[in-house]
Design goal:
It contains two helices and six strands, in the order E-E-E-H-E-E-E-H. By secondary structure, the chain is of the alpha+beta class. Strand 1 and strand 2 form a beta hairpin. The longest helix is centred in the last third of the chain and has 15 residues. The chain is globular.
Length: 90
């Protein structure tokens, strides 16, 4: 299992991430609110402004104070360590 640091010592499984998106659009804000009401929201931003929303394959949604670009880099770095190839490297 590959773990990605999403800020403040919090880790998520890289294999379980479906997407990493910006929280500014109205559809993402609605999705976060719906997931919060269902009790599936994990707020890992520690009170800071949310800069990215991680959508997990379990139905959970994770909020992070790190940018989507930084989290994507961390995912890519993990793949390079394992010897796997990203789409952009083919």
């Amino acid at each position: 299992m590959k773990l990605i640091n999403i800020g403040f010592g919090n880790l998520v499984s890289a294999e379980r991430i479906i997407s990493i998106v910006s929280p500014e659009s109205a559809p993402i804000k609605r999705m976060v609110q719906e997931v919060r009401e269902k009790g599936l929201l994990i707020d890992a931003s520690f009170g800071r402004s949310t800069k990215s929303v991680l959508i997990m394959d379990s139905g959970n949604v994770v909020l992070s104070a790190l940018t989507p670009e930084l989290l994507a880099e961390r995912c890519a770095d993990k793949n390079e360590e394992d010897g796997t190839v990203n789409e952009g490297q083919r």
